[in-house]
Amino acid sequence: MRVLVTGGTGFIGSNIAEALAGKGHEVVVLDNFSLGRNENVREITGNVEVVNGDIRDFELLKKITAGCDAILNQAAASSSPMFRSDLRSAVAVNVDGFVNILNAARMNDVKRLVYASSSSIYGNSAPPLREDMPVVPVNFYASTKLLNEHLAVLFGAEYGIETVGFRYMSVYGKNEKSKGMFANLVTQFLWAMMEGKQPEIYGDGEQTRDFTYVRDVVRANVLALESRKRLLGEVFNVGTGKAHSLNELVAIINKILGKNIKPKYVPVPVKNYIAVQQADITKISAALGYRPEYPLESGIRDMLPHYS
Questions:
Q1: Is the CB of residue 276 less than 8 Å from the CB of residue 208?
Q2: Is 159 a catalytic residue?
Q3: How large a percentage of the chain has pLDDT more than 90?
Q4: Catalytic residue, candidates 115, 122, 141, 168
Q5: Comparing 42-46, 145-149, 199-203, 230-234, which segment has the lowest mean pLDDT?
Q6: How far is CA 308 from its chain centroid?
Q7: Is position 274 within any domain?
Q8: Beta strands in the chain (DSSP E)
Q9: Structural domain includes residue 288
């Protein structure tokens, strides 16, 4: 298959591009390099073309989408703080850019779009988080992701484009260096503790996250891409179904590194801070055969060489 991966030099996108190329797919990577880096895809072997561009550029999207069988969209303003620093630009990427992708897919008869949504649309709903429960986005980022889901369903109903939205939980792994302060807490804590520094925790550290290794996220994307089922307007959680507190995370990293670093606890500086997160993965397991393979400790051990 010929597959367009938007945001393909970024964290999750580059991992997806690597996996697709390894499976023999023809991969076109589109990225504006705001958070992505060429180094994330430089060593990928296989048929990979990298295009420097932006999903807000509809004419470019229309051009490079021609001949594609599917699109895997990972391009986004992917963190709530990005909306606080530049709301107009972040909304333009996540909403206008997404509409451009849908329109380009429609015009070029692309059969399937797999795209990144977010678990943040659940807000502080009580876990386990299920796809059929009410969603309560509490920030601009989450609101744009929920709008993406609505738009995908409407385009599917109107034009027959198959769409699969993934509500990623808390994803960590290799190729996060370029994200800097926007990297996942697992990765930020690992970086700090490798240097003997205290990781900074908001509150008491008992808040939980469903930490999901990027290899499992990649597998979910590949399963959706290659599925023979008709996937029209689908939305799935992608996680492990297990929750860990930030205190547990620090303990696991200490164990792996052979250290005994205490975290630094600070007051929660943001509104609507998510206290709990744990996915119910029943739906994606039944529909796509997804099974997470990396518990938290295994995932950290697997990614450690990439940051050593």
A1: yes
A2: no
A3: 92
A4: 141
A5: 42-46
A6: 23
A7: no
A8: 2-6, 26-31, 48-52, 70-73, 112-116, 162-168, 170-172, 200-202, 208-209, 211-213, 234-238, 244-245, 264-266
A9: no
**Helix 11-22 and helix 214-226, axial crossing angle in degrees, nearest 10:** 50
Q: Which two tokens stand for residue 118?
A: 């977010």
Nearest Cα neighbor of 238 from 294, 194, 276, 191 is 294
Q: What is the pLDDT of residues 4-14, one digit of tens each?
A: 999 999 999 99
User: Residue 67's domain spans which residues?
Assistant: 2-173+213-239
Structure confidence at residue 52 as a pLDDT band (50, 70, 90)? very high
Cα gap 173→195, rounded to integer Å: 18
Q: What is the pLDDT of residues 255-274, one digit of tens each?
A: 999 999 999 999 999 888 89
pTM listed for this prediction? 0.96
The answer for residues whose C-beta is within 8 angstroms of residue 39's C-beta and 6 or more apart is: none
The arithmetic mean of pLDDT across residues 32-41, rounded, is 93
Whether residue 299 is contained in a domain is answered as no
Residues 37-52, mean pLDDT to the nearest whole number: 93
Number of neighbours of residue 102 by Cβ within 10 angstroms: 25
The two tokens of residue 289 are 């055969």
Range 23-43 average pLDDT: 94
Chain centroid to CA 29: 16
**Which residue carries 């059969």 as its tokens?**
111
What dihedral do alpha carbons 185, 116, 23, 291 form, nearest 10°? 70
Whether residue 197 lies inside any domain: the answer is no
Backbone angles phi, psi at 185, to 5 degrees: -60, -40
Q: What does pLDDT average to over the chain?
A: 97
H or E element that contains 308: none
170 has which bridge partners?
211
- Residue 78 has a pLDDT of 84
Q: Tell me, what CATH number does 235's domain have?
A: 3.40.50.720
Structurally, how many domains does the chain consist of?
Answer: 1
